[in-house]
Structures are given as C-alpha cells and as structure tokens.
Write a structure and sequence with these properties.
The complex is a heterodimer of chains A (about 525) and B (about 450).
Chain A: H1 32-35, H2 71-82, H3 105-111, H4 114-117, H5 129-146, E1 150-152, H6 158-175, E2 184-188, H7 194-201, E3 205-209, H8 219-225, E4 230-236, H9 248-257, E5 261-265, E6 285-287, E7 308-310, E8 322-325, E9 331-334, H10 354-390, E10 395-396, E11 406-409, H11 420-429, E12 436-437, E13 447-449, H12 457-475, H13 479-483, H14 496-501
Parallel strand pairs in A: 2-3, 2-4, 4-5, 5-6
Antiparallel strand pairs in A: 1-7, 6-7, 8-9, 10-11, 11-13, 12-13
Helix pairs in contact in A: 3-10, 5-10, 6-7, 10-12
Chain B: H1 8-18, H2 49-61, H3 84-90, H4 93-96, H5 108-125, E1 129-130, H6 137-152, E2 156-159, H7 165-175, E3 181-184, E4 203-209, H8 221-229, E5 233-238, E6 257-261, E7 277-281, H9 285-290, E8 295-300, E9 306-311, H10 317-320, H11 333-370, E10 376-377, E11 385-389, H12 394-403, E12 410-411, H13 412-416, E13 424-428, H14 435-449
Parallel strand pairs in B: 2-3, 2-4, 4-5, 5-6
Antiparallel strand pairs in B: 1-7, 6-7, 8-9, 10-11, 11-13, 12-13
Classes of the chains: A alpha/beta (about 525), B alpha/beta (about 450).
Amino acid sequence: MSMNAKGRPTKPETSNISPQFGSALLQEEGLLHEVGHCDKTGVDMEKLSGRTSRLGYLERSEATGMVGLSEPEALRHYVRLSGRNYAIDLGLYPLGSCTMKHNPRLNEKLARIPGFADIHPLQPTSTVQGALQLMEELSHWLLEITGMQTVALSPKAGAHGEMCGMLSIREAILAKGELEQRRRVLVPQSAHGTNPATAAACGFEIDEIPANAEGRVDWDVFCSRLGPDVAAIMLTNPNTCGLFEPDIRKIADLIHEHGGYFYCDGANLNAIMGKCRVNDLGVDAMHINLHKTFSTPHGGGGPGAGPTVLSSRLADFAPVPFVKTGKTGKLQLVEQLNDAPDSFGRMCAFHGQMGMFVRALAYMMSHGGDGLRQVSEDAVLNANYLLARIKDHLSPAFSGTCMHEALFDDEFLKGSGVTTLDFAKALIDEGYHPMTMYFPLVVHGALLIEPTETESLQSLDAFADTLCELANAAKSGDQERFTQAPVKAPLRRLDETKAARHPVLRFQENLQNT
Amino acid sequence: MRYLPLLDEDRAHMLKTIGVDSVDDLFTDIPKCARLENGLDKLPEHASEPCVEQHFSELAAKNINAGSVPFFCGAGAYRHHIPASVDHLIQRSEFLTAYTPYQPEIAQGTLQTLFEFQTQVAQITGMGIANASMYDGSTACAEAVLMAARITRRSKCILAPNLHPHYAQTTRTLTHTLGIGIEQAATAIGADTDVMQQIDDETACIVVQSPNVFGEVIDLRALADAAHAKGALLIAVNTEIVSLGLLKSPGEMGADIVAAEGQSIGNSLNFGGPYVGLLACRDDKKFIRQAPGRFAGQTLDAAGKRGFVLTLSTREQHIRREKATSNICTNSGLCTLAFTIHMALLGDVGFRHLAKLNHQKACDLADQLSAIDKVELLTPMFFNEFTLRLPKSAHEVVENLAKRGILAGVPASRLFGEGIMDDLLIVAATETNSDIQLSQFATALAEELS
C-alpha cells in the first residue's frame, strides 16, 4: 500500500465486498419503539395551570404506551430511515402507469405560504377569496386541457375520482329511471385494478373485455357485449399497454347509442396533453391524477388528488362542495345538498386536496399551454427512444411505436431461468428502481416502463445500456446474478409469504427480531 | 422550459433512432377529427419562477390565515403547532419523491415509518391494529361502515344524530350503492345515546362520534354493550385526535372499529386537505381480512434481517379487482409521515400534556364566553371545542367578528344549513391560542352582542 509523507495510506485496498450497513453513510436504525423512551419528549409547551378537567370519569387513567424522542434523536432517526428509500431525486423511476416525474420545489414553497397552508375549510368565505379563486383557476386549466364541461375538485385520489365519475354516471342513469335495468359495466382486461373495484363499489356488475393481439380493446367482443343493460365502459386511454385506442371515438359513439356512458381513466393523461382533448373523444367522465400528470409529489404513497372532469351529460350530478360566483361577483361555496338538488352527494368532509391544487396549478402555470404540450411530446418521445434502444434485447409486447410507456413480456427471458421478478430485482443492484412488473395482466410476465419527460437523453442512454446488458447476462446463463438480487440494497429479498401468514402489524415488545 | 431536459438536438437524434420524421408521427393513433393542431393556445405561455410566485402571493394575500388573527374554528379541522423539524423531515427527497413502497428492498424508510405509524395509532386509540391510512376521517368513516357490514353480513347502519354532517353525507354517498341502509335521527345536543333504542338484529353497526360535532364528549361504554348485545359493532369516530391524550380511548370503552381524522398531528389546516384518515380495529382475523387499505407488516429478508413489507394485499384492488374490500390505492403517505414524526416528538408525555393544555384553554374560553349576558354554554362536557347559544344569528356574529379580525368559530348553520340552529356557534381553542387572544375574543363578542 502506498503512503503519503505523514504515513497515511493514499489509496484504499481493493475489495469485492459490496456496501454493507453499519458504515458511516449506511446506518442501521432500530424502530422508534426501540430507540425512544416513554418519558422523553421533543416538544416544549406552556405549563399547565392545574385547573381540573370537566371530563370526570371519561378521563384517561393510563399512559398510551407511546415513546418519545428529543429533537436531535428524532432528526437522526428519520434522516437515517430516509437513507433507506429510493426516490426520483436519486434516479430514474421507470414505474409504468405511475408517471414518476420531477417534483418542482417551487410548488412545495408555494403550498406552504400561510395564506394557503394555514386557512381553515370552514372560515367565512369572505376570508378565503384567494383560495376560491385558485380553485377556479385550476378548474379553468383542467377544463381547457380536457375540453369538458365541469370539474369536481373534491376527490382525494385517483380511485376516489373514479368513484366520483361512476357515481355521476349512476345518478344520471337513476334520473332516467334506468338504474334497475343498467347493471353492467364493461372493463377491459388491461384496466387498473381500481376500475373494477370502483364499479363494484358503485353496485355494478363487471363484464371483462379481453384485449386483441394488438393490445387494444377487442372491437368485436366489445360490440357483442353491448345491450340495454350496459351502464358504462371504463377505459384507460392511452391504455395500460402504453397504446392509444384508435377506435376510441367509435367506442364512445356506440356506447352512447346504447344509452351507456364512457368513463375514461385519466392515469395516462401525461401522454396526450395539448395533442387532443378527451371531450372530443366522447368521454363523459375522467379523473385526473394531480400526483401523476401535474407532478404533486407521491410522498411514499400519497396524498394524491383526483379532480374529475364531467361532460355536459353529467355536469348537473357533480358532488358538493363546489365554487360558484355570487351575484356581487364574490366567490361562494355551495356546500349544502339542498342547494344542489341534482348532486349525487358528497365525496369527503371538505373541499378536496387544496395543498395539491396549489402545486398542480403552479406546475401548469410554469409550463404554460405550450409547455404542457411539450411535456406530452417529450414523454412520448422518451418512451419511444427507450423502446427503440432496447427492443432488440428485450421483447416488446406489441410491434410499432408506443405512447408514454412501453410494455414488454418475458419472452426474452425464456429458458434463462430468470423471471420478470428476478430481472426487476437485478435492476436494484444496478442503481435503478424496477419498472412496473406483472401489470397489465394481458401479457405474460409484464414489464411496463415509463421514463417520463423529465429524464435527459444521457439518463435514458445509461438506463438503456443497463437494460440491454442485463438482458444479455440473463440470456448468457448468469442466473445467480438475478435470483440472488438484490445484494447491494439495505436488505435482501423480503419474505412476503411470512409477512402475510403471520401478520405482525405493530411493534410488540416480545416480538422483536422475529 | 426549466423542467424539461431535452435539447432540440437531442430530440432530433432520438427521432432518428426511433426511425420517424417528426414527433407527430408518434401520435397518429389519435383520430384525425380529435387532433389539436394548435395545442393549448388558449392557455397562457410558460412562466418564470418569480412570475408564478408573484401570482400565488397575490392569491394568498386575499386570504386571512389562521395564524395572523385570534382563531377559534374547528368542526373537524384544528389548528395546532407543528414543530419545525416535522416539515423539514418530510421534505427530504427520499421521503417526498418516493412512490408507494412496492419494492421493499429500497423502500424501508417509508415502510418502517408506516409500521411506526400503525403502532402509534393503535396505541392512542386503544385498538389492536391500525392500517396505513385513509384519505381523511370522513372517508375512513364510510369505509368502516362497509367493513362492519362485511364482518356482520348485515346491511343496516345507524349514525348517531351528532355525527359531523359531512361525515354522515360522505358515508351515505359512499355506501348506499352497496345496499347499506343508513338511519339517523335528527341532530340534537345530548341525543347521541338514543341510538341504543334503534339497534336491532339487522344492525351491522352504530357510528358514534366523540367528541361529537358540537364538542360533547360521549361515554361509549353503554353504547358498545348495547351494540354487542345485538351482534352489532360500534364504530367510534374522532375528528380531533389530540383529545385521545386526555380521554379514555375508544378501545378501552369497547369500540370495534375507530375511524378518525389525524390532521391535528403534524398536518396544517390546508383549507381541508390533504389530511390523514386513521382506521383502527380489533386485532381479529375476521376484522383484518375485511379491512380496507394498506398494511405494513414485519418480516425477514433472505439473510434473516428484520424488514417491512406491504402485506395482506389479497384484500386490495390490484390483486382482487372487483372483489377487493375497497377501491383505495394511493392513501395519505406523506401525511402519515408528518403524523408519525410529530407524534414521536411528542411521545406519551408530550401528547398528554398537549391534550391537557387544549382542554384548559377551552375551559378558560368557555368560562369567559358563557359569562357574557344571554350567551349559553350547551355542552358542559367537552374537550377543546364547545357549542354556545347566542342571542342572535351565529353566522352574522362570525361575519362581523371576522371584519374585526377575529375568526370566532363555525356557525352550526354552515354545517347543517340555515333555519334549524342559526343561533348556535361551535368554538374551538387549542394550545396555539394565547390567553390574550381568549380575552380579545370574549371582549369582542360581548361588544358585538351588546
């Protein structure tokens, strides 16, 4: 080993050992309930006056059992835990159907302005005119982008928006006196699981439509399933195979002819902004995932926001509350069901995800109409470039170009002893979050890749190189590299069967390290 | 465009690699009649960061934020102090910009904090287990009703008369499609225990909020016994989770499912969202199997190290599709993190102190306000919120006091519509109210009514 003048080594010894926890940058960290203490607190408060409570026998007599941390300990605990998460800010996050794009920090700053973050949902409306104006502006942008008649802002996530759309459809059918008769909702096989779950929660029966060999709705099957008992079709467009449904206008017309409605799952709106408007496609209702298309942070699983645009056929049935302009020009909230006689009801306690509205509107204004169109063009361009770069090494599920995401099956792994899961886990060792796996259900061992528009050419090239190299390694018989993966993550593969068979859902003293 | 990394030369290179002439060649599946040739030309063009910031500052300036005035609104959303470290930690990229933890090997940060969250929620509610969150308290309430119906295989649900009306409406909207019959007597202070008379052999559950929408604290024990005697479940609703630092927990009083709003811990008012719904229940296989939403569970990795995964997902929509227990997918991830960190900072000691402080402030305020001539306190047993009968329209009083720079609470008519309880005012006080603010409110109300 070489030494410098002070006798210190200048070069590390080479080693094949991969990073392990326990080093300065990769700290082990116990559970809160192991590192905390029941007598500790990290919050100083005003002293208690000693007056007796009014609660008498309903007062708690026992401690909660929770532990606390001082502020330095809390910072250390959660910063250490944060180091065990992958994130967009660390690298490409190619989860198909999830649109994991860059989250602008300006939007975080704006959402924290006290004038938005520190206002109460039931303050007099005279004291929240700016908030109501913001909701109106957001609505304007969403309606311009989609061409639809109205938007219900209150749904709190995509699936909640689906519910809003399907309840509007149900109400419209009820108003026509056809609810007894229209029981069936057509759902393509490639749909997100939320679609059939939503239709079922609205009391409908689900009729699954298979995909054709090109990954689109099978036209003949679709036609054969139409009838006077059909309430609606729930269709994702572009669909979850990453393909635009070229027959969409015909599908819409036909479902309308048969007295049904067209619900469009808006999860993939990122592919078509400024290229077409869903109203022109014949859509009656569509939720918009502000946490996908309009970049509000996904936060490890929410909060999302699912404003739902409605066509003129459904607009009257929208849920309360909503904003309207009063006679004096002041903005008002319609909150009582009595004031909205056709409304199907209420989706949640208050007005929706204001914090997400601020972020989404800031995102839209930053991009402008021109930028939003560029977003969709670049998202589709990036996906197609990636597809072109890797299509000879992996096996694309369908021929031709794609929209904002590219679907592959596991044909390229055939005979290698490597599964889709193994392939995905091996990506972790290469420094990437895996793509969506085993979804959609229409192809075997699906791998769905969505790079989004916020990846650079260099980033796409590096990812493409990695995918090709991995595919070749799998084919050349380096099975262990895949079946053992990941070996460079904080943890090796986790035993999900054990977790489900013997559920441990909270900390318990006697169950440590089982 | 500052958020888009591609250069024109990159785009040209990429089109060439793909083998098409222009980007429009990638959009040819869009029917010609629907193509937008001119894009979104009715919308403004892209804007610089200062320009956007300016617009939002102007909008924000048109609102009166709670922290700038004496502030006493509650009724389902409460203003509490959030330690600075909470907001700092939840803005770490690794938490903020992560997806749902579907790849547990590289999502232990999120999964472990969810496990800690579930533990804390179970501990404060006194329940066996809790899930990884719902959208908010009202949707948690609706989901709890559906869960109770599945567990009992019954379809009648009785809502207590003083359940927050928005919770009642949300529950009705989200459950009636599945044949759940909702019964609810007219709202009336002191009438919640009357639901006992409505329980019969077809009742799946009774839903009782404590403290209720008027702030009244309810003894749930007799209600739990009455429900259980008929094979029905008690769903306890809580919209001010800080109250559980001072009150007997719903679990201790016999609740089977708890549906609550967790906003008070770690989350700002945000004009109503995002918030964090809490759903806790008995640690019973039958309950767990019918629960909505996600659970983080403990397990081991291939090398025998402890780790956490999303588990019991055979209940969920991505596996079970139309047979799922709920359609919920994305929930309130980052809000649960804020809750968990704030709660970890409080600990048991801080949480109980915070609750006592809230109760004390509210008691002081109630004493001062009810001493005003013709003002009557209608809810003697309350936590940090109570209801007053005023000698005139509460709506008018609130509007007038707002003009004087005091946000005096929520008129009952805002929640129930005008005409029934126009003279009732629901008032909340928290640790954020100084003693000076309490007297400012009392003085202003006395002047307003004189």
